[in-house]
Specification:
Layout: H1 4-14, H2 18-30, E1 33-34, H3 35-43, H4 49-61, E2 65-70, E3 73-78, H5 80-86, H6 90-93
Antiparallel strand pairs: 1-3, 2-3
Helix pairs in contact: 3-4
């Protein structure tokens, strides 16, 4: 992320989708979750793995989430420090 404004635009673009907004809101309240199983339930029951992967990719590019591999599973967590750096108070307002 180059500038404050560019970072903010990237964050707002990522959050402009209802599914991604739900993911960020739930990650903020729940902490780290398994990407496929738990995130599918957060968005909608009929969400595909490809759709979840796409949402995670967009959120990761915006700097909103981080992923890590635990065995064969991948977990996703919100990057509160990044969000608070560019948009303080945003997460609690969601």
């Amino acid at each position: 992320m180059e500038t404050n404004d560019a970072a903010k635009v990237s964050i707002f673009k990522a959050l402009s989708d209802e599914g991604r907004l739900k993911i960020v809101r739930d990650l903020y309240s729940r902490g780290e979750v398994c990407s496929c199983a738990d995130l599918g339930e957060m968005i909608a029951e009929d969400t595909t793995k490809q759709n979840i992967s796409y949402h995670i990719k967009i959120l990761k590019q915006a700097g909103l989430v981080t992923t890590r591999k635990v065995g064969q599973a991948k977990t996703v967590a919100i990057r509160k420090d990044v969000v608070d750096q560019y948009l303080p108070g945003l997460l609690s307002a969601l």
